[in-house]
Each structure stands twice: as structure tokens, then as C-alpha cells.
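DM between two lab members

TW: hey, do you still have the Cytochrome c biogenesis protein CcsA entry open?
JB: yeah, one sec
JB: this one, 272 aa:
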Amino acid sequence: MLDFKWVYELILLLYGLSLIGYFIDFVQTNRKANRIAFWLLSMVWVLQTFFLLTQVLVKDNLPIMTVYDGLYFYTWILVTFSLIINRLFRVDFLVFFTNVVGFLVMLIHISTRAQNDLKDQGVELVNEMLVVHISLAILSYGFFTLSFIFSIMYLLQYRMLKQKKWNAKLFRLGDLTKLDHSSYVAVILGVPLLLIAIILGVTWGYVSPDTFYWYDSKTLGSFLVLLVYVVYLVLRVIKGYQGRAISIFNSAAFLFLLINFFLFGSLSNFHF
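TW: and the structure you got?
JB:
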């Protein structure tokens, strides 16, 4: 059998990067990020279409007869719709969340199909999914940590300016506007990474023979951390919060992240 494992990994990589690009465009209305995401998703569509045509023309089988084949065709439809909507209309909300659903369904299809078709390589792919889940979660925590540091620097700078403490430390902390924006950018990068990590973790729990606890403290805590930072973005982008108020909220959000990592992690049945 041909080694399709690397193709599956490539599809997931391109889809994940596309999802990050669409998220940045969704939050910032960034046309460059939108274009990059569009072409990455187009590459996913080409690979999907190749497999689809192989099934139809070579194997004379339309992949809709089983649940998992139907998932693949469903994902192809979602990607196709997403590309058309992105090209002809400007509905960022719809495009982003369509791709979130499509990415989740694609993960379920590929991981399940890999286990059935690729045997040992399929098990390896599922195990690698867990490694990527943990790596992306930790990477997102790194961005949230940077965001927290920028917020603390902002609050220190703000306090020194209020107290009119003009010294070398004041200038070494940096400009208030840049600190505020840097904190915001770090959250924008961290949120989609954590979202993808959670999707990978849920998919791994679905296809893995190991016991998966939906009500595990770390699982619920991760969803809550994502929710807290989504609220941060809502306050920042929609409500227009900036400066001291959003920096305080961001600092509180990071404290909750630490509680999730250390306390909820110690209470977890299967997380470290």
C-alpha cells in the first residue's frame, strides 16, 4: 500500500495553518492573512479532490456509502463552500467557523481511516496527534505568557507615569501603545493554537482506545481558558477596551491559566 501517512499529515498541517490565518483575519480584518489562508485552504481542497477523484474514477466508488466516507465528502463540501464564500462574499464569521467545523470533521475522518487502512502507521498517526495536541497547547500557553508579561509591563509603566516617576526604568519598559498592542497580538496568536490543540485532543479522545474523560478537570479547564481569552478578544475588538482595563483582565486571565495548568492538571485523570 502506498504510504499516505505523510499526505494526511500535510493536509492537517495546511488546514491548521489556514485556520490560524482565517482567525487572524476574523479578528483584525487582515487581508494578507486572509489571502494566505485562502491559498493554504485551496491546497487542502486540491489534495482532497485528488483523493475523491481517485475513489470515483479508479476504484469506481463514490465515498458516501459509509459514515466515515461520508465525513470525508462532507468535509470536502465544507471546504468548497468556504472557498466560494471567501472569494465571492466577505462573511468572515461564517468562513472561520465553517473551517473550524471542517477541521474537526477532517481530523475525525483521517484519524479513524488511518487506523483502519494504515494499521501500524495509523496508530502512529493517532499517537502523533496527541504529541501535536500537547505541543500546540504549550505553545499557546507561551504566547499567553508573553501577553501577560506585556500587560504587567504596561501596568507598571502606567503606574510610574501616574506617579510621575521619570527615570531610566520608565523608558526601558517601552511605549504604552506598543506594550498594549504586543499583548493583544500575542493573544491573537495563542487563541487559534489553543483551539486547534483542543480539537486535536478531543479527536484523539474520540478515536483512541484509551479512556477519555469529558468531565476531567483539565479538559473542562482548557475549554474555560479558551473561553476566557475569547472574552478578552470580544472586549478588545467589539467593546473597544484598551489600556489599563484590558491589561488587568489579561492578567487575571493568565492567573486562571496557571490554575488550570497546575491545580486542574494535578487533579486530572489522564493529563499531566
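TW: got it. Residues 126-271 form one domain. The chain has nine helices and no strands.
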